[in-house]
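To illustrate the input format used throughout this study, we show a single complete record. The first block contains the structure-token representation of the backbone; no residue identities are included at this stage. The design step must infer an amino acid for every position from geometry alone.
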């Protein structure tokens, strides 16, 4: 009999251990939100949001990921309630490739592109034939060109939009020389060009202040509204009470103030 009891106890322990290694722990009252996020700025913003959610009786459990695949895999598997690291085009592509049904519960922020001064101190001082550095990958180059167009430096072919390349420039009144290069390398090239278009995260890494850029994407720009970062959930959970509470807090005045003070324009909350 003792041997049988030991066997049952051992079996029970094995089941307990296996359960602990699987999906997230049961949330009997629906008050725990398990969310996956990139370390910065997403997890930092969530940590601040967690303080506000705590006052509402929710516990926010943040799991950090350093890649762009596992957060979606974990969400689809049920190990997460939500994730916060990606923009909508990436989510759409991931769903198509992996046959998943993950959806946005809300668009939270974008990281704006800015035009930074190199050899000149203002856009008005831009000389004829000036060299302008832009990212060489499709998505980022299009955003850079749209920002240059928004500031009157070029005109793009009608309908080019977020697929625009240098070949889509149809009017270039100052004959600027658009130089394509790897996005991460552009900050180092500032001393060699008149101006450069740089993504917010690379600007911060290089010690540049977005608030001091010559021009920036605004919240209504095509780039901002298309590439705003979303909180993703499994389809059908967009209206879960705890998810709605999370989105409400992330769009609150308190988080707005935190983001403005911490990131100085490198991260911008969307309405």
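Output of the design step:
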């Amino acid at each position: 009999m003792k041997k049988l009891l030991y066997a049952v106890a051992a079996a029970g322990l094995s089941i307990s251990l296996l359960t602990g290694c699987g999906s997230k722990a049961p949330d009997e009252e629906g008050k725990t939100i398990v969310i996956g996020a990139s370390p910065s700025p997403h997890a930092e913003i969530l940590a601040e949001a967690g303080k506000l959610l705590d006052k509402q009786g929710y516990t926010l459990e943040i799991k950090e990921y350093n890649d762009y695949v596992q957060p979606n895999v974990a969400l689809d598997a049920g190990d997460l309630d939500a994730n916060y690291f990606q923009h909508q085009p990436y989510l759409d592509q991931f769903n198509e490739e992996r046959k998943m049904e993950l959806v946005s519960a809300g668009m939270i922020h974008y990281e704006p592109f800015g035009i930074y001064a190199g050899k000149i101190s203002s856009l008005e001082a831009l000389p004829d034939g000036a060299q302008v550095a832009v990212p060489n990958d499709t998505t980022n180059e299009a955003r850079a060109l749209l920002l240059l167009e928004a500031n009157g430096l070029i005109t793009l072919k009608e309908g080019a939009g977020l697929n625009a390349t240098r070949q889509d420039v149809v009017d270039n009144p100052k004959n600027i020389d658009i130089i394509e290069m790897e996005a991460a390398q552009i900050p180092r090239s500032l001393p060699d060009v008149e101006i450069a278009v740089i993504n917010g995260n690379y600007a911060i890494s290089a010690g540049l202040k977005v608030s001091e850029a010559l021009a920036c994407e605004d919240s209504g720009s095509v780039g901002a509204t298309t590439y705003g970062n979303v909180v993703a959930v499994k389809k059908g959970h967009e209206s879960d009470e705890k998810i709605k509470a999370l989105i409400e807090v992330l769009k609150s005045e308190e988080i707005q103030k935190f983001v403005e003070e911490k990131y100085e324009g490198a991260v911008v909350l969307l309405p």
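Structural context for interpreting the output: The longest strand covers residues 102-110. Residues 1-22 have pLDDT under 50 and may be disordered.
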